[in-house]
From TrEMBL:
<dbReference type="Pfam" id="PF02852">
    <property type="entry name" value="Pyr_redox_dim"/>
</dbReference>
<dbReference type="InterPro" id="IPR016156">
    <property type="entry name" value="FAD/NAD-linked_Rdtase_dimer_sf"/>
</dbReference>
<keyword id="KW-0274">FAD</keyword>
<feature type="binding site">
    <location>
        <position position="265"/>
    </location>
    <ligand>
        <name>NAD(+)</name>
    </ligand>
</feature>
<feature type="domain" description="FAD/NAD(P)-binding">
    <location>
        <begin position="7"/>
        <end position="310"/>
    </location>
</feature>
<feature type="binding site">
    <location>
        <begin position="178"/>
        <end position="185"/>
    </location>
    <ligand>
        <name>NAD(+)</name>
    </ligand>
</feature>
<dbReference type="GO" id="GO:0016491">
    <property type="term" value="F:oxidoreductase activity"/>
</dbReference>
<keyword id="KW-0520">NAD</keyword>
<feature type="binding site">
    <location>
        <position position="305"/>
    </location>
    <ligand>
        <name>NAD(+)</name>
    </ligand>
</feature>
<protein>
    <submittedName>
        <fullName>Glutathione reductase</fullName>
    </submittedName>
</protein>
<dbReference type="InterPro" id="IPR001100">
    <property type="entry name" value="Pyr_nuc-diS_OxRdtase"/>
</dbReference>
<feature type="domain" description="Pyridine nucleotide-disulphide oxidoreductase dimerisation">
    <location>
        <begin position="342"/>
        <end position="442"/>
    </location>
</feature>
<dbReference type="GO" id="GO:0000166">
    <property type="term" value="F:nucleotide binding"/>
</dbReference>
<feature type="binding site">
    <location>
        <position position="53"/>
    </location>
    <ligand>
        <name>FAD</name>
    </ligand>
</feature>
<dbReference type="InterPro" id="IPR036188">
    <property type="entry name" value="FAD/NAD-bd_sf"/>
</dbReference>
<comment type="similarity">
    <text>Belongs to the class-I pyridine nucleotide-disulfide oxidoreductase family.</text>
</comment>
<dbReference type="InterPro" id="IPR023753">
    <property type="entry name" value="FAD/NAD-binding_dom"/>
</dbReference>
Length: 448
């Protein structure tokens, strides 16, 4: 007979969203279970943000040294990919066990297996031959996304982002299909690790949603590092050629490479939960939710990557939504979810980070844009950065409402801008704060 378990709330998915929800619910005294079918911790720490930025750390150390070649440093630094990968693995391999230990320490129940609804009030959780019935008063869907598939002949020969982040050897040459976050971040890493990288971009521009000038600057800098961009180009077929792969491009050229990475977007896992049986609507953008993150079944909530919300699908927004859902279920809030400004970043070489009103929308909204080339400012001369740019958007009162930065410290600088935006700081009020001099923050006074 199937074991049957009862909880106040069942959270499906142990990524950043599900864990944030579970912790918030438990803190308010709810009896909570988290169900996970793969790696505890989800995408971000196991095969997403964290491993990527661990590998990038080695790349950045090399870039920083290269910037000083013949200008104070000698001897080139080369990336030993297998060792860098081993270092990454030492961190990621402990994530699932640490996640489970943390659930145990918090008194949150956990169940391994694939969850599917049987009806509007019950789940079946399958782990091999074992099936468990879970009944809960409320459910939180936090099952994330998976990489999009491709339908071209030979698509099965491509690897996805998870496999790239575990590549044992860096091939001499690779193709990356896509022009989004993952394509540009991976091109930055692979090129620095010695691979000749070909990026196939379907349209005429990379990184839609980011400042077009800065995206172009990133393409230019990566091109100078040996990355080949092919715009308005698709891969039409992939075939095996010994241990290599041959990639046919839409304009007729054939590339022979060791690895082909597929970075063509991600799709929500909403189609794998038998949601029809629970009266929950979803479409290709994820599970439909209202302003309380309730689905079409008011006892079933969706949050994070799987939820069809207007914000970027990121770890930060997933955690925010997970915490909100917990508060709503706990009765700690009745208000609709209200998002703060959402920062976005491409962790390339260099990085592009942005928050608030983008410069290209500023004029239409009556805001002013200040453009800065900070390359020769003391902070960046010190680091021998190739180019550091910022676009800062101010409202009529001189308060900062948006910022976009390009440079190797763009992420950290934008973090400062987030605080300034949330505190409605202007060129006048910023003078009331003291920052450590010299540091990146001590430039803020010159940027408003
Ligand atoms: C390569 C890459 C790099 C990224 N880099 C960044 C970055 O730098 N910064 C950033 O903010 N974001 C980044 N992201 C996005 C970030 O990883 C996600 O936004 C975040 O992980 C979403 O969290 P989540 O909990 O909603 O989903 P996930 O982390 O995907 O967790 C969902 C979990 O649900 C489980 N699950 C799915 N279906 C079932 C089921 N039926 N039963 C049980 N369990 C199930 C999955 O196994 C998974 O563990 C990156 C993503 C990728 C792929
Ligand atoms: N730094 C970060 O915060 C970060 C990093 C990586 C991923 N992510 C998250 O993961 C998501 C997925 O990243 P992504 O780069 O896969 O998606 P993306 O949506 O950023 O980019 C997908 C790209 O693939 C192209 N494309 C789609 N189908 C194609 C096809 N058949 N052939 C060729 N090109 C095709 C699109 O035009 C686009 O350029 C992001 O939207 C983001 O939510 C975030």
């Amino acid at each position: 007979m199937m074991e049957s378990l009862k909880f106040d709330v069942a959270v499906i998915g142990a990524g950043p969203t599900g864990l944030a929800a579970a912790n918030g619910l438990k803190a308010a005294g709810k009896k909570v279970v988290v169900i996970e079918q793969y790696l505890w911790g989800g995408t971000c720490p196991n095969y997403g943000c964290d491993p990527k930025k661990l590998l990038l750390a080695g790349v950045e150390a090399r870039e920083a040294a290269l910037a000083f070649q013949d200008d104070g440093l000698q001897a080139t630094v080369e990336i030993d990919w297998p060792k860098l990968m081993e270092r990454k693995n030492r961190y990621t391999q402990t994530v699932p066990t640490r996640t489970v230990a943390s659930l145990d320490a918090s008194g949150i129940a956990h169940l391994y297996g694939k969850a599917e609804f049987i009806d509007a009030k019950q789940l079946k959780v399958t782990d091999g031959d074992t099936e468990t019935l879970v009944q809960a008063s409320d459910y939180v869907l936090a099952v994330g996304q998976r990489p999009n598939a491709m339908t071209i002949p030979g698509a099965e020969l491509t690897i996805d982002s998870e496999r790239f982040l575990s590549l044992a050897e860096m091939p001499d040459e690779m193709v990356i299909i896509g022009g989004g976050y993952i394509a540009l971040e991976f091109a930055s890493i692979a090129a620095a690790a010695g691979s000749k990288v070909h990026v196939l971009v379907r349209g005429s521009q990379v990184l839609k949603g980011f400042d077009a000038d800065f995206a172009e600057e990133l393409v230019e800098q990566l091109s100078d590092r040996g990355v080949h961009f092919y715009f308005d180009t698709e891969a039409t077929a992939i075939t095996k050629a010994g241990t290599n792969l041959k990639v046919e491009l839409s304009f007729g050229t054939v590339l022979e490479v060791g690895v082909v990475v597929r970075a063509v977007g991600r799709q929500a896992n909403s189609d794998r939960l038998a949601l029809e049986k629970a009266g929950v609507d979803y479409n290709q953008h994820g599970v439909n939710v209202n302003e309380y993150l309730q689905t079409t079944n008011s006892h079933i909530f969706a949050a994070g990557d799987v939820a069809n919300t207007p914000v970027a699908r990121l770890t930060s927004t997933g955690g925010f939504e997970g915490r909100y859902v917990a508060q709503f279920i706990n009765g700690q809030t009745k208000a609709a979810i209200a998002y703060p400004p959402v920062p976005i970043t491409v962790f390339g070489t260099p990085k592009i980070a942005a928050v608030g009103i983008p410069a290209d929308q500023a004029e239409a909204k009556g805001y002013t844009v200040k453009n800065f080339d900070m390359t020769n400012w003391y902070s960046y001369y010190r680091l021998a950065e190739r180019k550091v740019l910022a676009k800062v958007v101010l409202n009529a009162a001189g308060e900062i409402v948006g910022a976009t930065v390009l440079g190797s410290h763009a992420d950290e600088l934008v973090n400062y801008f987030i605080d300034l935006i949330n505190r409605h700081e202007s060129d006048v009020t910023i003078q009331k704060h003291l920052y450590i001099y010299p540091s990146l923050a001590s430039d803020l006074g010159y940027l408003l």
